[in-house]
Write a structure and sequence with these properties.
Layout (H helix, E strand, L loop, with lengths): L1 H19 L3 H4 L1 H13 L3 H8 L1 H20 L4 H14 L3 H12 L5 H29 L4 H4 L1 H16 L13 H21 L8 H23 L13 H31 L4 H22 L6 H19 L8 H16 L2 H9 L7 H39 L7 H12 L4 H34 L1 H5 L6 H8 L1
């Protein structure tokens, strides 16, 4: 349900933005607000579960998420929707780590691998239903239903979990909470994200506000690191980065997820705004990724090979998928657009679990909850930063390409004059013909900008393989339990 809410909002973003009277670029706050709030609360999952119990924490998170979804569904403006998305992201922090903790609590050690495989398949099902469902709702119903559909699912999840597992809840104990660390964390993440979201519209560091936000983010980050390294009960145990495997695995996970998140946001925006696709068809283009991921997960989970090899396969498939997209022609067919997404599905299957195995290898069991919280926080924050950066880069590259293409638009250029005359024979006036050529130049500019981003994403994916092979080979039983 949580992953669905991210992918469903991606493809519905132009519709929501249009309905609320804002641009699609401004509307990205709908996505990044959720991601930042979620990223800030994820590191607190370990503390919450020890303080209130795994079952109680997960149940409250699921029901609170459902209530926040209702508020999102009745939002009346962009400001109210962003506010409710912040609430939705904040209360959903324990949902994914909590579901993993419940599996660990319910199943014996020998069955946890199978349980994790099923859990991964269910999580990967969201990219199938998210884009298609979001597109269908946007085209046929009011956009609020992309949030309101959570209500029956969330109520059922919270109720069933509490009724069946409340008597098996874990012991609780009173723990101090690092309030200063949490406030510093919120301060620098919010400052950084706001800087990224507003930077493009305010000409980045030519704006006093952006400079102030950048300084706040930098100073807040340094102060947060110093505080967490010296506090007796830190909200985030940064000393865990002394583990080489955890450091390298987290870097690979964050960059890989950032590339995936950014490209999943960019593709439906491009298809709907400049390729003439409806939200439904844009969702169908993205659907092969989730379909292939779900179909291949049961097969991949049976292979017992080095996690570094599995992660390498993932980055190779990611790289190939992005590079295939860099060859998109202006008149690409539906199947040409969707084909690289099928390869991305294979990459998603071999992405999360092998990197978790690498990250958590060698860590003592008592540090695993903290490690998973930190890695999830880093991953989610990287995704939200990538969402802001990719829209800026997209527009800047388009402006560059449009300028170069427009250089051929001189009245003295015989090719340009020939195009105007040809459109004139089709019944257009000279002004109409020039307008049509201008629109074509804009569309071509955004195509070339998209291709640039796909190309860069492909090569970055291939470079991330190096981080995987600098890590030690994960040991068998110990990291298998930790990964669960």
């Amino acid at each position: 349900m949580q992953v669905l809410d991210t992918t469903i909002a991606n493809v519905s973003l132009p519709t929501i933005a249009g309905s609320l009277g804002v641009s699609s670029d401004t509307g990205t706050w709908i996505i990044t607000a959720f991601a930042v709030a979620n990223g800030v609360t994820v590191p607190l999952t370990g503390w919450l579960m020890q303080r209130f119990g795994v079952v109680r924490t997960f149940t409250f998170s699921a029901l609170a998420f459902t209530f926040a979804s209702f508020l999102c569904g009745i939002a009346w403006s962009l400001s109210s929707l962003v506010l409710f998305r912040v609430l939705q992201g904040a209360v959903s922090g324990p949902m994914i780590p909590g579901s993993q903790a419940l599996l660990l609590m319910i199943f014996p050690a020998e069955k946890r691998g199978t349980a994790l495989g099923i859990w991964s398949a269910m999580t990967l099902a969201a990219p199938i239903f998210g884009p298609v469902l979001g597109g269908y709702i946007s085209d046929n119903y009011h956009w609020s239903w992309i949030f309101l559909i959570n209500l029956p699912l969330g109520i059922a999840t919270g109720t069933i979990t509490w009724l069946l597992l409340s008597k098996r809840d874990t012991p609780t104990r009173k723990l101090p909470i690092d309030k200063v660390g949490l406030m510093l964390l919120t301060f620098w993440v919010f400052s950084m994200q706001t800087m990224l979201d507003l930077g493009k519209d305010r000409d980045w560091f030519h704006s006093t506000l952006i400079v102030v936000l950048g300084l706040c983010a930098a100073i807040g980050f340094v102060a947060w690191v110093i505080w967490e390294l010296t506090d007796r009960h830190p909200a985030v145990d940064l000393t865990i980065f002394k583990s080489r495997n955890f450091l390298l695995g987290t870097v690979a996970l964050c960059f890989g997820y950032a590339l995936l998140f950014a490209n999943n946001l960019l593709l439906p925006l491009w298809l709907q705004e400049y390729m003439g696709y409806t939200a439904t068809w844009a969702g169908l283009v993205a659907a092969p990724a989730g379909t292939v991921a779900v179909l291949t997960t049961p097969l991949i989970s049976k292979f017992k090979i080095d996690s570094r090899i599995m992660a390498t396969i993932s980055f190779l498939c990611f790289g190939a998928s992005f590079l295939m997209r860099s060859w998109y022609p202006p008149d690409a067919s539906f199947f040409a657009l969707a084909a690289p997404l099928a390869l991305q599905g294979v990459a998603m299957t071999t992405f999360f679990v092998p990197l978790l195995a690498i990250m958590l290898d060698g860590l003592p069991p008592e540090r695993v909850p903290s490690a998973t919280g930190i890695s999830n926080f880093a991953r989610i924050t990287a995704g939200s930063f990538a969402a802001s950066l990719v829209t800026t880069l997209w527009d800047r590259r388009e402006a560059l390409h449009q300028t170069r293409l427009a250089e051929a638009g001189s009245p003295y250029n015989p090719v340009f004059r020939g195009a105007v005359e040809q459109l004139g024979h089709a019944g257009m006036s000279e002004h109409q013909a020039m307008g049509a050529i201008g629109r074509t130049i804009t569309e071509q500019g955004y195509l070339l900008a998209s291709v640039d981003i796909f190309w860069a994403s492909g090569w970055i994916s291939l470079l991330l393989i190096g981080f995987v092979w600098f890590a030690r080979k994960p040991t068998g039983p110990r990291h298998a339990v930790a990964a669960d």
